[in-house]
Here is the input.
Amino acid sequence: MYLKRVVLILLAVMASGLVFISCAELKRSKPILPIKEYEKMIAGRLDAEYVGTENCLSACHEHDDLKAAFDASTMGVQLKRESGLPLVDCESCHGPGSLAIKGITKELVEENRRKGKKTKCNYETLIDLKKLPAAAQSLICLKCHTGNATFNLHEWNAGVHALNDVSCMDCHKVHQGPDLKVSPIETAEMCFTCHAEIKTFYRLKSHHPVLEGKMFCTDCHDAHGTTSERLLKRPTVKETCAQCHGEKEGPFLYEHGGVTEDCLNCHRPHGSPNDNLLIVREPYLCLQCHEGHPLNTPEGQRRPSDTVRFFYQRCTDCHSQIHGTDLPSPTGSGRFIR
Here is the structure.
């Protein structure tokens, strides 16, 4: 019996040791690939040399249209003037290009031109951006953008998008033209490609006018990451809602406790089948926290035993200032009546 107990204790100690080791392993930061391989992944071929954008494009004319779109963008403009920002050109993202244009001469380019053909470079020596893991794709962008204080990217790595393998390139198309940012009117459809379940809320009877183009996802959320839950731009839900609904923010002399705490206690932010984005219809919403109460009538207050004493209609027919008020009720207490 004693030996059996000792064995059980030893097994328990060994098990706790394994748990401790596994926890330590989880906390340890590990690269996706060995360091040298990861460097190649985001920096390109280490045996290649940087030759400059003009040398690349004078040798290879396959990318003329892409180059024209890039030159018109905010990043391409940096090549033409002193902006004080990190230099951005083809090799900043695609890696050094000497091996890609190796063997391509002016004579070959001219001969292909006479034949009506475009000279192609050796793409395989460049970084294959489409095949990179999402974290590596974003890191290529962050090489420059984390050094620029005008970009709100300080929360990106800890944000829900980065943690779910969403990369910068999923939303931003570098070669699309002058503006690399998605316009507000286009953000909804872009967001719905991943958040399809949210789109269904905007088709309900009561909803914020996002599909109508009068509001945008970016009015409330910052896709690049925030310290708030749900990528909210403001620290709390109430502060976010108060950007538009300032009259309901308060502070009030008579405050409604549940409303003061969180708007989501009563409202569904994207859409609801109930009026005013309510999570439940009145009076059932109010009855989740409040009991029914007797009504005052010209004959006086009804008796508590009276079966008709409960008022099961819309509570806000009487309590119209439900978010809070500075005026007491006729009885002298704050019942959110006026």
